[in-house]
Specification:
The chain is an all-beta fold. It contains no helices and eight strands. A two-stranded antiparallel sheet has the order 1-2.
Length: 109
């Protein structure tokens, strides 16, 4: 079986020359036949990850709107704020409260 942080396509064996490093934006647990993408709300520009917990939580003020990202998708839209792990630029639960200003890229009101 392949080691953590690596995968073997087509269920080949770890001794095969087909042992491949897990690419950035993905993680590869022991025995992986294919990389698994980091989840929405996370990203990673590092290779050889072995668990989804090693993907980085999207940083405040940014959002990670897809799986398998190398960097955050972009800043939160004005009128909203994006705490850590945001997956959209306009999170309904985080509309800027009355009396506060939330410019583009805000992580809190």
């Amino acid at each position: 079986l392949p080691s953590t942080g690596y995968y073997c396509p087509d269920n080949s064996y770890a001794t095969d020359s087909r042992l491949l490093a897990c690419p950035a934006g993905n993680f590869c647990p022991v025995g992986s036949a294919a990389p698994r993408p980091c989840l929405t709300g996370t990203f990673s520009n590092r290779t050889h990850l072995s668990a989804s917990s090693q993907c980085e939580v999207c940083t405040g003020g940014q959002y990670c709107g897809d799986t398998g990202l190398l960097t955050p998708t972009g800043p939160c839209d004005g009128g909203y704020y994006c705490p850590n792990s945001s997956s959209t630029a306009t999170p309904d639960l985080y509309q800027c409260p009355v009396g506060h200003q939330c410019p583009r890229g805000s992580s809190s009101p």
